[in-house]
Amino acid sequence: MAAQQIQAEAPEKVAPRTGNSRGKIAYWAAFALLVLLALIWLIPLAWAIDTALKPESETTTVPVSWFASHFTLDAFITTLATSNLPRWTFNSALTSIAVSVLTVILASLAAFGISRVRFQGRNLVFWIILAGIMVPGQILIVPLFTQMQAFNMVDTYWGIILPQIASPVAVFIFKQYFDGIPHELEEAAILDGASRLRVYWRIWMPLARPAIAAVAIFTFVTSWNNFIWPFIVITGNNMMTLPVGLATVQTSFGIRYAQIMATAVIGSIPVLIVFLFFQKQIVEGIAGTGLKG
């Protein structure tokens, strides 16, 4: 009887070990895949830094080599000395921050109105805003430029900023987040005499910090990397943003790859800093808005 009892209990002890080993295999397989994807993403960045640190004469050698005879900062020094890079960086920072702040305010107000204010045609307004996601931005370039020209905003900061602050995606994210906030908070505040604007600013916005962070960061990165619209609306060198300035540097330098890569590396540093400092907020914002949907 004792032997039969041991044989009956044996499979029950082996099964958890098999499941545990399978879980470990799946974990390490996923980990290896993520490491591989990270390396694939980092290779272009490493190549750009490597090329920027090479002497110009070694950037066009065949076969191509990762390692130069010696590394130098000549490309960075030449780029800073011959281009208007500090001014372009300032223009990009100013316009990107302004676009991010105005987008958060405008989109959150629109989302609050659609989510919390009961009015006729509310769903229709929301669907019209969502339809804007399906409209390619390129087809709006001509009417936007005509409008900026009529307002005398060509080659101005406002000409760069205003057309970028209307974001249907941001409205959608804020509405999804606001829909998940309990109505009792709003009702209690209104009973205490608070206006809807006060409810929006004192209750809804503090609760929507993850959504604010996600929208602000993604808007900042998108505006920072935007090339087409600033390229069209800007006419002077001093008003250029960094992506537009990079294009002029590439044209003037020709095939001087070290200087081109040095300019690109310098231009990518602010975006990398933003991501490194706010990656937690990005993840929380995406997760929070996703769960509320």
UniProtKB/TrEMBL annotation:
The superkingdom listed in its UniProt entry is: Bacteria
Bilayer topology? Multi-pass membrane protein
Q: Where in the cell is it found?
A: Cell membrane
The family database entries (PROSITE patterns) matched by this protein are listed as:
ABC_TM1
Alphabetized, the UniProt keywords read: Cell membrane, Membrane, Transmembrane, Transmembrane helix, Transport
UniProt protein name: Sugar ABC transporter permease
Q: Which Pfam families match?
A: BPD_transp_1
CDD domains, alphabetized? TM_PBP2
What protein family is recorded? Belongs to the binding-protein-dependent transport system permease family.
**Mind giving the lineage of the organism this protein is from?**
Bacteria, Bacillati, Chloroflexota, Ktedonobacteria, Ktedonobacterales
Q: Which residues cross the membrane?
A: 25-49, 93-112, 124-145, 157-178, 260-278
Tell me if Transport is a UniProt keyword of this record.
Answer: yes
InterPro entries, A to Z = MetI-like, MetI-like_sf
Residues covered by the ABC transmembrane type-1 domain: 89-278
